[in-house]
């Protein structure tokens, strides 16, 4: 097929350029400036050189590092930044994207294939973006007899609940979206919300296979929530707190997995069941019930549920790290106060200022925060690897075997774990008032 | 097993009386557009998670192969007769060629007989690997989907060298095979078959010894020895129920009686045994191929020269072979014309399908894929 080049006309070129300029001006004025001002409202303006800064002087300050950096630092301490970017949604979505890529390539290596290969030149690294664009561009089909408001709400609720779960995970000292005293109870509350959404999805599709899938998901999640909660009681007994940040701080010397390996194993198996991953992917068993409760979801509705399930995967892996592997604790791999010196050394800020200055606002991040984040990500990656691995090794279990595992074996093991924790507390080795 | 077990006999819904509806009972149409059905529909009635009635509904890929055969002569029938099972095309042409040879009174050269056996056994491996891959993904084991598909390429390469096509070889012709082996084929074949057998042993580690697989497929869909014979099942289903029946041994054709192999028989008759028999048969296929390569005459003719439009006498013949899915027979009726008067294909898939309602009634819905695909059923072949 030959491609005929369009005839070049100077008039069209000029028209195109002026059109672009026109739209840039319009969009900048109508959207850009209001957005910038909304962002500026959220920042507590610092006092520099005895003057309180207002939004009109901020643009001027952008050119001066010593004035811009305090603004950036202040912005990073707002709730908006925490929710949108670092310990919250953006960070989790980035990890989720990495997980999807690693899952595809790892499974491919396991199964004599190459996985995504062409999209993005380097090992198909942009495949996820292509899939996302495809899902966005697809038509959303709603079954004629579906319960429409609930059907629409399901994907949004699922992604939002997963986001709420992510908000409870402390990543680094002080870096958590919602640092609440009853953090672990909040986690249980959020987990308890997922079965309701799956049942709603199955019920509102008004179709047989989603209905069976929803009921299966309800069985599975309800019967695995009990050992999941019980397996964490030992840690609550030993630390005497429900605050996740305090649980992490209690593991400065040793992670709890050393004392409670049984609890960790039970919790890990419950994670697999809650995440509906192989070998426990009965609610989505494609050879039996098509796609389970996801059958009628199409286009970006399906995409949202997938996003939610990978956010959930990150949150569960993070919870495992926080509770059993010591969270952000780890040997220092990052030097403690590096930023102030490194950046100011030898930088000529003004023509006549040859002296080394301490720029206000530096360092942007505390050293311990970067160190903690590195350790948290490393441990989370390890846990996620072990969550992904069974998909290449195991077939799917049957519903009666699944319930038998949950009710007979895991609950018993969870109680064994609780008695180990009680023994540790009453012997006075560790726990509140213990010798360690 | 749970205490909540339905009676094995179909007293609740005898036959096809689907009108008797209970509030507890839900009807599921598994297929024809369902990831776990193949080209067929299974009408299931489920009470909770238990199947109380099963009604397989094949026929979605009926192509009228038997009628088409009546309008083509004996040679031009070859390419379309292999369409029902393109993965096992040598074996489905085998009874046809044997029958036509008997009809026309042809004597097949010795070397051609060995080449046929090698091609048929390689093709059995190709089919069984494909079947095994789908059995893996039916149970949710994605690695078991990819490994047989990848290792199948080894055998497909060999068949490609032999016949010039990856699938649908049209290699067997009445009176021998279409062309001789390429030079140096014996060494390549021996090397690849040895490597293939080494790979087959690794399947035990990831699939057949997997505790979850064993817990899922052991003691599900048990077909007793008596029922297996009464229902007329063949092939791996029959041998998994403890019946020692292999046409290659009982009614040997071509050179099978001179070759060294054994019949695999398991006594359990459950899904696990039915899934294991084809895998064990692949080791026997490797053994047969090695033996045939050793005993094969190194040179000689591979095809009898045929007349342009051969006519059969006023007789009829029935020949059957052991295909990947059991007994595969062809009944050719000749009325002294270049075309067969009637060609009846009797396939193992359709015979094994008869056991499905018997096995699925009373099972859980989760066992449906495991039992269904363990019957070694190929929908396209069954519909012909």
From TrEMBL, chain A:
Keywords: Membrane, Oxidoreductase, Transmembrane, Transmembrane helix. It is found in: Membrane. It comes from Marine Group I thaumarchaeote. GO terms for biological process: aerobic respiration. Its main location: membrane. NCBIfam families: PRK06076.1-2. It is an enzyme of class 1 (oxidoreductase). It comes from the Archaea. One of its GO terms (molecular function) is NADH dehydrogenase activity. This is NADH-quinone oxidoreductase subunit NuoH. Its EC number is 1.6.5.11. It is a multi-pass membrane protein.
UniProtKB/TrEMBL annotation, chain B:
InterPro entries: NADH_Q_OxRdtase_suD, NADH_UbQ_OxRdtase_49kDa_CS, NDH1_su_D/H, NiFe-Hase_large. It is an enzyme of class 1 (oxidoreductase). GO terms for molecular function: NAD binding; oxidoreductase activity, acting on NAD(P)H; quinone binding. Keywords: NAD, Oxidoreductase, Translocase, Transport. The keyword RNA-binding does not apply. Its EC number is 1.6.5.11. It holds the Pfam family Complex1_49kDa. Residues 139-304, 314-384 form the NADH-quinone oxidoreductase subunit D domain. Gene3D superfamilies: Cytochrome-c3 Hydrogenase, chain B. Belongs to the complex I 49 kDa subunit family. This is NADH-quinone oxidoreductase subunit D.
């Amino acid at each position: 097929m030959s491609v005929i080049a369009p005839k070049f006309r100077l008039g069209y070129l000029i028209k195109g350029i002026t059109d672009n300029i026109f739209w840039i001006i319009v969009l900048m004025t109508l959207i850009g400036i209001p957005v910038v001002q909304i962002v500026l409202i959220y920042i507590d303006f610092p006092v520099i050189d005895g003057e309180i800064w207002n939004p009109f002087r901020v643009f001027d300050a952008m050119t001066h590092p010593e004035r811009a950096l305090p603004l950036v630092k202040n912005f990073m301490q707002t709730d908006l930044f925490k929710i949108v970017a670092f310990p919250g949604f953006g960070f989790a979505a980035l990890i989720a994207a990495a997980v999807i890529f690693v899952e595809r390539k790892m499974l491919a290596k396991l199964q004599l294939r190459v996985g995504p290969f062409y999209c993005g030149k380097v090992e198909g690294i942009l495949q996820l973006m292509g899939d996302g664009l495809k899902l966005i561009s697809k038509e959303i089909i709603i079954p004629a007899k579906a319960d429409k408001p609930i059907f629409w709400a399901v994907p949004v609720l699922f992604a939002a609940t997963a986001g709420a779960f992510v908000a409870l995970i402390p990543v680094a000292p002080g870096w958590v979206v919602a640092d609440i005293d009853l953090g672990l109870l909040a986690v249980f509350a959020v987990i308890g919300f997922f079965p309701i959404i799956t049942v709603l999805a199955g019920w509102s599709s008004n179709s047989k296979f989603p209905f069976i899938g929803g009921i299966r998901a309800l069985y599975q999640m309800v019967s695995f929530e009990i050992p999941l909660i019980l397996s964490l009681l030992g840690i609550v007994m030993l630390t005497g707190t429900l605050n996740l940040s305090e649980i992490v701080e209690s593991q400065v010397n040793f992670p709890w997995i050393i004392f409670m390996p049984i609890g960790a194993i039970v919790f890990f198996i419950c994670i697999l069941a809650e995440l509906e991953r192989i070998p426990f992917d009965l609610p989505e068993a494609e050879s039996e019930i098509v796609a389970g409760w996801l059958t009628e979801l199409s286009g970006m509705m399906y995409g949202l549920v997938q996003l939610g399930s990978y956010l959930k995967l990150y949150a569960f892996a993070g919870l495992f790290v926080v509770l059993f592997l010591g969270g952000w604790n780890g040997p220092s791999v990052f030097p403690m106060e590096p930023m102030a010196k490194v950046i100011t050394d030898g930088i000529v800020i003004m023509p006549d200022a040859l002296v080394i200055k301490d720029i206000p606002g530096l360092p942007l991040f505390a050293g311990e925060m970067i160190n903690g984040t590195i350790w948290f990500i490393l441990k989370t990656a390890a846990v996620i690897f072990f969550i992904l691995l069974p998909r290449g090794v195991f077939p799917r279990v049957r519903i009666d075997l699944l319930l038998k595992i949950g009710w007979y074996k895991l609950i018993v093991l969870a109680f064994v774990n609780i008695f180990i924790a009680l023994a540790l507390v009453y012997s006075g080795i560790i726990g509140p008032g213990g010798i360690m | 097993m749970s205490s909540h077990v339905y009676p094995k006999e179909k007293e609740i819904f005898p036959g096809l009386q689907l009108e008797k509806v209970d509030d507890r009972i839900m009807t599921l149409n598994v297929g024809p557009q369902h990831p776990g059905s193949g080209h067929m529909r299974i009408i299931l009635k489920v009470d909770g998670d238990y199947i109380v009635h099963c009604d397989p509904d094949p026929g979605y890929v009926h192509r009228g192969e038997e009628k088409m055969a009546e309008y083509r002569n004996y040679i031009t029938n070859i390419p379309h007769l292999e369409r029902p099972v393109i993965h096992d095309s040598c074996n489905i042409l085998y009874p046809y060629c044997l029958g036509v040879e008997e009809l026309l009174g042809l004597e097949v050269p010795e070397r051609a007989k060995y080449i046929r056996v090698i091609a048929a056994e390689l093709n059995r491996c190709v089919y069984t690997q494909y079947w095994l891959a789908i059995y893996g993904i039916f149970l949710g084991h994605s690695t078991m989907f990819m490994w047989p598909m990848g290792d199948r390429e080894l055998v497909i390469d060999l068949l490609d060298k032999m016949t010039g096509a990856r699938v649908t070889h049209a290699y067997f012709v009445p009176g021998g095979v279409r062309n001789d082996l390429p030079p140096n084929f014996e060494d390549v074949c021996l090397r690849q078959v040895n490597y293939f057998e080494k790979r087959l042993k690794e399947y035990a580690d990831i699939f057949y010894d997997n505790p979850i697989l064993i817990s899922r497929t052991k003691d599900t869909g048990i077909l007793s020895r008596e029922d297996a014979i009464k229902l007329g099942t063949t092939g791996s289903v029959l041998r998994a129920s403890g019946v020692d029946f292999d046409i290659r041994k009982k009614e040997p054709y071509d050179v099978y009686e001179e070759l060294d192999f054994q019949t695999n028989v398991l006594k359990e008759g459950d899904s696990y045994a039915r899934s294991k028999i084809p895998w064990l048969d692949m080791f026997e296929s490797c053994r047969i191929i090695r033996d045939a390569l050793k005993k094969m005459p190194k040179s000689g003719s591979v095809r009898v020269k045929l007349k342009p439009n051969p006519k059969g006498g006023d007789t009829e013949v029935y020949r059957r072979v052991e295909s990947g899915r059991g007994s595969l027979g062809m009944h050719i009726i000749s009325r002294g014309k270049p075309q067969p008067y009637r060609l009846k294909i009797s396939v193992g898939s359709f015979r094994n399908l008869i056991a499905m309602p018997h096995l699925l009634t009373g099972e859980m819905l989760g066992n449906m894929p495991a039992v269904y695909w363990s019957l070694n059923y190929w929908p396209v072949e069954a519909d012909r």
